Amino acid sequence: MKRSTLADRYCSIARSSAELTDAWSFVILREIFLSNRRFDGLQAQTGMSPRSLTLRLNDLMASGIIERAAYQDSPVRYEYRATDKGQDLWPVLVALKQWGDKWTGPWKGGEPPLTLYHRGHGHLLELGFVCKTCRVPIDARSSSVCMSQPMSAERENLASQYQDALRKKRKGSAGE
């Protein structure tokens, strides 16, 4: 499936994925959250070509996740900052970091690449999900899903299209 069609889906996860373009978007956001906001610094730390970095920065700006701000007037030079929408991705990146710490090592010396501390408290910072209503810790097994009617209809339509394509393919194979 083309990524451009994800933005048209009736699904928050699909639409979010479409806005974030690809894995490089997360690496760029990591750098911005590490206060590395200038093009040269982003290029150095990501290893991306100038063209690829420019394309992804433009995608993130078009999605309203980052913005460009001048930090020098003559000549004009820019840095990239997370917007409020981009700031809301911080817990997503931390959750991805924590998952990666656990599942994508091993790490030299047994220490993960980044360690977060709770500013003003001094202790290690590890995020977890807690129900906002009852304050009970939650995980994937703690929830049930209620799918909206538009999403159910879209899923039924996609399954039907898939079955039609399979039937056509089988008829084409049988006729050969």
Outline of the structure:
By secondary structure, this protein is mainly alpha-helical. The chain has helices spanning 3-6, 12-19, 23-33, 39-46, 50-62, 84-87, 90-103, 149-174, and strands at 66-72, 77-82.
Describe the protein.
It is a single chain. By secondary structure, the chain is mainly alpha-helical. It contains 8 helices and 2 strands, in the order αααααββααα. The protein has a two-stranded antiparallel sheet with strand order 1-2. β1 and β2 form a beta hairpin. The mean pLDDT is 92.
Largest sheet: 2 strands, antiparallel
Q: Which spans have pLDDT < 50 for at least 5 consecutive residues?
A: none
Number of separate helices: 8
Binned, the helix content reads 40-55%
Mean pLDDT: 92
Q: How does the helix and strand content classify structurally?
A: mainly alpha
Shape category: extended
Report the span from N to C terminus: 27 Å
Order of helices and strands: HHHHHEEHHH
Widest beta sheet: strand line-up: 1-2
Compute the CA-based radius of gyration: 21 Å
Strand content: 5-15%
Number of strands: 2
Topology:
Layout: H1 3-6, H2 12-19, H3 23-33, H4 39-46, H5 50-62, E1 66-72, E2 77-82, H6 84-87, H7 90-103, H8 149-174
Antiparallel strand pairs: 1-2
